[in-house]
Design goal:
Helices cover about 30% and strands about 25% of the residues. The protein is built from seven helices and nine strands; from the N terminus they run αββββααββαβαβαβα. It has a five-stranded mixed barrel with strand order 5-8-7-6-9, surrounded by four helices.
Amino acid sequence: MRKVIRTDDHITATHDFLQNHTGGYTADIGIILGTGLGGLVKDINIHHRIDYKEIPHFPVSTVESHHGNLIFGEISGKNAVVMQGRFHYYENYSHEEITYPVQVMKKMGVKVLIVSNACGGLNPIYKKADLMIMRDHINFHYDSPLKNFRFQSYNKPLYSPELIALAEKAALINDISVRKGVYLSLHGPALETKAEYAMVRKFGADAVGMSTIPEATVASNLGIKTLGLSIITDMGLPDTLKPAVLAEILESAAEAEPKMTLLTRRTIEMLSFN
């Protein structure tokens, strides 16, 4: 893992660049478009779109299916800054780099972060294309994204109970079936073995993936209310495990995307900033 240092001066330089290129844009909402939320871009009244490569000190996504744009615009009447493409530990990025955009969002005034992911289901009542609201997580990245932060106790919930309740209400009103569970993240990029699926299920996880936890942890530490949303794209049940097929994973993500997009949009509509 390469050593990359990000200081307050870097954050300020990135923030100032974005302010200069967007006419002083501020946002209440930050959104990280993981798998299953890409379609949300169609619902955004886009004011500015900047390639990650143009932004000072910003990482660049290397995953083929992830775009690399920072989008500024309105969704459901609220200003948002949206990451169209995220960064992963398995791309050889440090947690400091992965979470750098969240620190920039904080400086831009973001109060709420919504982050999505695709993951494997471990709970036997789940099925492919289900949506899961993250009520908590387990970090198996062998590293802490808070190493360079002032320590804060996590006796408080990391994922906002207020946002979880709003998402559940939005799901009920719009007849969207959702699960609520614990997400465990390994650093990837390989999918889990049969023994690993059995192990992480015993640890209490309902789903397993390779992202989200660094960004959510740092956001919460910075005082940003956080909502995590997952799409179950495949099942990791040890006794009935089948080889994962990428085409089938993408098919499950595509099936769930309209529901995920609607749930996110309706949840944002109910947000109130005083």
